[in-house]
Design brief:
108 residues
Length: 108
């Protein structure tokens, strides 16, 4: 929330990124940014599974700032279901997080 609170007034959108997904690359970010246009929320998917990072239009900033506790933005996604665009990404990195040393050794 601190990062979102301090967004530049010039920002049109922002990503919510997870720190344990280091293989997400700039091409994925750029692909999602290109899709923003009239959509409020852009979600990458791999084999119909939602992934990260999620790109949010600044129009949902206040909704996210009002989230209480460690619940993530799932309620925001449910509430704005008709304003979501899902983008197919042919890379498992958007769904693969790294929590243990073994996760790193088994990644491709």
């Amino acid at each position: 929330k601190i990062g979102i609170k301090n967004l530049s007034t010039k920002s049109e959108a922002f990503f919510v990124c997870l720190g344990d997904m280091p293989k997400v690359n700039k091409e994925i970010y750029n692909n999602l940014i290109k899709q923003l246009k009239n959509n409020k929320i852009i979600i990458p998917t791999y084999k119909n599974k939602q992934g990260n990072p999620v790109l949010f239009s600044k129009s949902v900033k206040e909704e996210i700032m009002n989230i209480d506790g460690d619940v993530g933005a799932k309620k925001i996604l449910e509430k704005n279901e008709n304003k979501i665009m899902k983008i197919k990404i042919d890379d498992t990195c958007i769904t693969k997080d790294f929590n243990t040393k073994n996760d790193f050794s088994s990644s491709s």
